[in-house]
Structures are given as structure tokens and as C-alpha cells.
Amino acid sequence: MMRSFTAYIEFDPETSLYVGTVPGVPGAHTQGATLDELQSNLHEVLALCLEELSEPLENYSRFVGVQQIELAI
Fold this sequence. Notes:
CATH architecture: 2-Layer Sandwich
Number of helices: 1
Mean pLDDT: 93
CATH class: Alpha Beta
Structural class: alpha+beta
Oligomer: single chain
């Protein structure tokens, strides 16, 4: 069965690395020097994390979406 997951990606200027997290999957986070490397690393870590789950994935939190918040600062 194929399943899609959403990754949250940020660029860390201190390390010059892309950092990716898959919300709702415990431990599913990694980094990479390029977006292609990050995607490969996310694929690998996600597969490993899913193998190690102690409960069905449906019992964990789900990614719902993102929101833009505007503040005058």
C-alpha cells in the first residue's frame, strides 16, 4: 500500500543545512545539504520510523496543515 506523508522543511542558516520533519511520525526528522539529499534522507528515516512504531500509525497525531500568521513587529 502506498501512503503519502507531508514533510515540514526549514533551512538552518547556522549549519547551512535543510532540516525536515514529518509531523505525526515520532522520530521522523533529518537533515541534508541539498533538497535532493534531504528528500532521500527523509525517505530513509520515515521508513525506519514506521518499522519501529509500537502502535498503528492511526493512533498518532495527524498533520492537518499550516497557517500564515501576520504580526506587526
